[in-house]
Amino acid sequence: MYTAASSLNSLHWAVDKWLAPTAAHPARVVRMGRSRLTGLHFVCIEAWHAKGPLAIVFFKHEDGSWNVFPPQVRRPAMSAQRLAA
């Protein structure tokens, strides 16, 4: 499903923002899988910089966006509502 949030926070966009790969120092996928906690996808991407390799884990959220923080876990919730008499 394509949404505005997913286009702004695509995996390509997130990698460019956080790792700034270049032709001389490209980024590569080191590991990918699914989170046991949420069942959503994650990807670990590495790029080389002047001080050595830098790896960041990106998490795919339910809206299709990719972020460096994991999605919140859904927890049981309760609510109450007053009915009009």
β-strand number: 4
Number of domains: 1
Instruction: Work out the helicity level.
Output: 10-25%
Strand order of the largest sheet: 1-2-3-4
Instruction: Give the termini distance in whole angstroms.
Output: 42 Å
Q: Please, how many helices?
A: 2
Mean pLDDT: 85
Uncertain residue ranges: 1-6
Detailed description of the structure:
With 85 residues, the protein is an alpha+beta fold. The chain has one domain. It is 16% helix and 33% strand. It is built from two helices and four strands, in the order ααββββ. It has a four-stranded antiparallel sheet with strand order 1-2-3-4, with helices on one face. Strand 3 and strand 4 form a beta hairpin. The protein starts with a helix and ends in an 18-residue tail after the last strand. The N terminus is likely disordered.
Task: Give a quick rundown of the structure.
The protein is an alpha+beta fold. The protein has helices spanning 4-8, 11-19; strands spanning 27-34, 41-49, 52-60, 66-67.
List the helices and strands and how they pair.
Blueprint: H1 4-8, H2 11-19, E1 27-34, E2 41-49, E3 52-60, E4 66-67
Antiparallel strand pairs: 1-2, 2-3, 3-4
Question: What labels would you give this structure?
Answer:
single chain, four-stranded antiparallel β-sheet, 2 helices, 85 residues
